[in-house]
Amino acid sequence: MAQQTPDITLYTFGTPNGVKVSIVLEELGIPYKVRSIDLEKIEHREPWFLKINPNGRIPAITDHSRGDFNVFESGAIMIYLCEHYDPEGKLLPKDPDLRSQVIQWVNISVQ
């Protein structure tokens, strides 16, 4: 089965968690568009964004190539991207022990 070309929109602002997601997108060579969310205008609480992330926080993504599938929370987004677009396992290894180590680091909060 041929892998579909990704079409991702990243909803973010210049926060560390948003940067983490963009790094994974770049490292995997995934094409994406950035939709900057204006926090001063409380855009992250508007109904259209709450459909993408009911928590009203950034970052979030919409994967248009997979039926407009939405993912929120930076760790969940990074794991999702690796599971769907990293078949070689370069960022998220297939080996269960190595995979566990990566997931432990993914869940660390960035201050």
Brief overview, please?
The protein is an alpha+beta fold and 111 residues long. Helix content is 35%, strand content 16%.
Task: Walk me through what this model shows.
There is one protein chain. By secondary structure, the protein is α+β, with helices and mostly antiparallel strands. It has one domain (8-106): Glutaredoxin (3-Layer(aba) Sandwich), CATH 3.40.30.10. It has four helices and four strands. Strands 2-1-3-4 form a four-stranded mixed β-sheet, with helices on one face. Helix 1 links the parallel strand 1 (8-12) and strand 2. The termini are far apart. The mean pLDDT is 90.
Outline the fold blueprint.
Layout: E1 8-12, H1 16-27, E2 32-36, H2 47-50, E3 60-63, E4 69-72, H3 74-85, H4 96-106
Parallel strand pairs: 1-2
Antiparallel strand pairs: 1-3, 3-4
